[in-house]
Each structure stands twice: as C-alpha cells, then as structure tokens.
Amino acid sequence: MTAVDRYTGPIIDSHIHLFDASRDEGIPWPEPGHPLHGVALAADYWALAEKHRITGAIVVEASHWRLDNFWLLERVRQSPHLLGFIGNLSPFDAAFHDDLSRLEREPLFLGLRYGNLWQRDVLDDQTRPGFIEAMQRLAATGRTLDSANPDPRLIKGLIRLSDAVPTLRIVVDHLPSASVPGEHWADFQRDVLALAERPNVFAKLAEIPQQGNEGLVTDPAFYRDRLAYLWDAFGEDRCFFGSDWPNSNSVADFDSTVNLVRHCMADKPLAVQEKFFLRNVAHAYSLPVLQGAR
Q1: I want to staple 217 with a disulfide (CB 3.0 to 4.6 A). Which of 16, 42, 212, 287 is the partner?
Q2: PANTHER family per the record (predicted)?
Q3: pLDDT tops 70 at residue 180
C-alpha cells in the first residue's frame, strides 16, 4: 500500500472536548490531579489540526453540569470551524425539557450524550419514569444521541432503547476501545452486530490507538483485525472518524493519532476512506455541510 492510496482530503473530526479549569467554578472533568486537568480550547485544537486538513470538528460535552451546555455553546459560536456540539442533559433533571427547548433553537446543537458514566446506566435508566419520553422528545428535535463508555451492558441498553424509540439516531462512541472481559467478547460482538441491524445506529471509531508492552502499537494490521467486526456490522456508510482530543493524549499525541488512523484505513478504496473521514458524520448528525467550515 503506497502513500498515494491514503486519503489526504478534508476531514471532519467528530469528537473533541473543550474545557477550562481556570474558570471560577472549575470543571468536573478532568479532575484536579488528572494529567489533562487544565485548559483545552478551540485555538489549542486548531493549532494541531489544521495541518492534517481537518476543516471541521464537533465538540462533545465532557461535563455533566447542565449550565456547562451553555458555556460550551458560546465556545462553539466563537470558533467558525466548529460545526456544533453534543450536549449533556439528564432526563431526570427538573429543567430537562426547558433546557432542551432552549437548545433545540440553536443550529449548533447537534444532540445529547448519555451513557454509562456520571453514575448513569442506559439499561436501568430507561425503565425509570420519564426517560423514554425524553428520548422521544430528543428524536422529535431531529438531533442525535451519543452514547458513552461502551461495554456489554451499554450495548444491550442501546438495543432496547433503539427498539423503544426507533426514530432516534444513535451514535455509539469509542467502540474500538470497548471494555469487555475476554469471556464475554463473543457475546459482545453478537450484540454489536444486532445493534447495527438498526439503520439509525452509527459507529464513531474514536479511541482507535492502543498502547502495548512497548508503547504505542503502530502496526496497521493490529488495528484492522480489531476493527474488522465493526466494519462488518456497520458497513462503509455508518462508520466515521473521531480523534477524542485531548483525551487521546493519554495514549498518543495528536499527530500520531491522525496518522495512525489514516494508515489503518489505507487498505480501503479512496471513496470509502472519504466517507469515513468526511461524509458519514454529516448523515449521523444531519449536518448541512460536508466539507468543514460553516
């Protein structure tokens, strides 16, 4: 495989985080003492991303504080190449419907994130009063639900949720790094295949790089084997790229992350690579653009 076979066109990065620990109120994540605790803002991201022909990015809220949705909205408004953001609201918060009504008037609001973190559990929570109604309301806005922290329980919860609200678009984040004990791997793969049968479910292939005994694994064959079942499940039209910056820095620097993913995809036709890096994300989030800037 030669360098000319690797996709070199524009990229939309579907998964970055912004935060500012210098705010008076601080931030809930990354916590004080965490290696990433500090400041990660749009200017920091674009200083790294522009040389890779990343022309647009989507921010995913890393805070479960409801008012941080509006802090993040202001940051996105100030950076013309940020295409929008995935917010975070709890269906069990008394302000949920008012907050969603406020956000849905914003074109930059692309959806909500809900997964097995922040003491939440998709499988259990959808049995509680109000959850399914909240997801129906989200679906009615035309926005997307991003999941978080994939494990076997989350996938089972998403299958049940997709069946309960079939009009809801769902993006499963970070599937390449799913936490699955070896004895449950076969069952997990079967559930992922079952989830992928729902046409409104997409796979965000963020957190691809992995650390081995000798540091970052750089062999593309290692990743192609790990990703094969996801390509089989979701196909070339429902998989797309996310860097997970700056959380990705705990595994690899930004240049290494992007270059490694390019190498991993280089065995696919250029048209398929273009879908992965640019076009599929627009369908997952109903973006009105396919090539970056608003």
Answers
A1: 212
A2: AMIDOHYDROLASE, AMIDOHYDROLASE-RELATED DOMAIN-CONTAINING PROTEIN
A3: yes
> What is the pLDDT averaged over residues 123-132?
97
Q: Is 215 left (phi over 0), alpha (psi -120 to 50) or beta?
A: left
- Dihedral, 172, 287, 233, 11 alpha carbons, nearest 10: -90
Residue 194 Ramachandran class (φ > 0 left, ψ -120 to 50 alpha, else beta) = alpha
Question: Which two structure tokens, joined as six digits, stand for 222?
Answer: 């290692």
Q: Count of alpha carbons within 13 Å of 240, Cβ hemisphere only? A: 25
Q: Is the pLDDT of residue 291 over 50?
A: no
CA distance 283 to 281: 5
Determine the pLDDT at residue 1: 42
CATH class of domain segment(s) 8-284? alpha beta
Question: Would you call 184 helix, strand, or coil by DSSP?
Answer: helix
Residue 102's H or E segment, with its range, is helix 96-104
Model confidence over 48-68: pLDDT tens digits? 999 999 999 999 999 999 999
- SS3 of 30, please? coil
Helices (H), 141-289: 152-164, 185-196, 220-234, 254-265, 270-274, 280-285
Helix (H, G, I), strand (E, B) or coil at 127: coil
Per residue in 114-123, pLDDT tens?
999 889 999 9
Structure tokens at 130: 């109000």
Say if strands 19-20 and 169-173 run parallel, antiparallel, or are unpaired: unpaired
Residue pair 61/88 in contact by the 8 Å Cβ criterion: yes
Question: Comparing C-alpha atoms, which of 65, 63, 87 is closest to residue 76?
Answer: 87
Instruction: Please report, as a single letter, which amino acid is at residue 81.
Output: H
What backbone torsions phi and psi does residue 47 show, to the nearest 5 degrees? -60, -25
Of the chain, the end-to-end C-alpha distance in Å amounts to: 34
